[in-house]
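My main concern about presentation is that the manuscript never shows what a single data entry looks like. In essence, backbone conformation is discretised, so a fold becomes a row of integers matching the chain in length. An entry of this sort, consisting of the sequence and the corresponding backbone structure tokens, reads as follows:
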Amino acid sequence: MRYGLQQLLFPGFLFKAAQSPPRPATVAAPTLRRRGAHGLEADPEDPELTSRAQALLLNLPGCEALAKSVTARWNPRLVSTAGQAFPARWAVVLNPMLRALPGEVERTLRHELAHLVAHWRAGIATGGHHHHRSRRRGKIAAHGPEWRRACVELGIAGEERCHQLPLPRRAVARRHVYQCPRCGMILRRVRPIPPRRPLACRDCCRQHAGGRFDRRFVFVEMMV
């Protein structure tokens, strides 16, 4: 569960969530992408937190094996994010600052465990393996009906996908400035666009290329 700047990926297009300033929509080149697990670069597993997670999962039907695989830990590197779930490793990490907010450790733990439960059950439905490093699970929406059902079973019915918690916001300068060579649209980014994953202006691609990625409209970095 992330608070603050978020990204929503739709087929071929990149949008920013409502919390962030409006930014030009882009079309990504059709290449394979891999998700990292940087949130697991945290403190060692917390036995007490893991034990609490296991106890919660043991109360859910069909999650006994998941309870044996789950791990939980604190990640002091999290700033505006309250917690994260990593179904590929059946792991949950929480922001230590939640300890100062009454009730938020428990609620966030259940929120993230609901993500694991949703993926676990999707694996059962599709016949996927449940080894903790397996990725053969069904594709489900991050906060879809599977997650909402798990939230109800974990005692947080009506849980929202995001909360406005009093966590600090990290201001990050967008030093990399790009421009569409056709319409002049400006795109600002914190990190440079990877050479193997170029982005093109969505408006120009829609107007002149049927909505498909077209290298004629790839953003060009500007010297600022």
Summary: The longest helix spans residues 104-126. Strands lie at 7-10, 13-16, 26-28, 71-74, 83-86, 91-94, 176-179, 186-189, 199-201, 220-221.
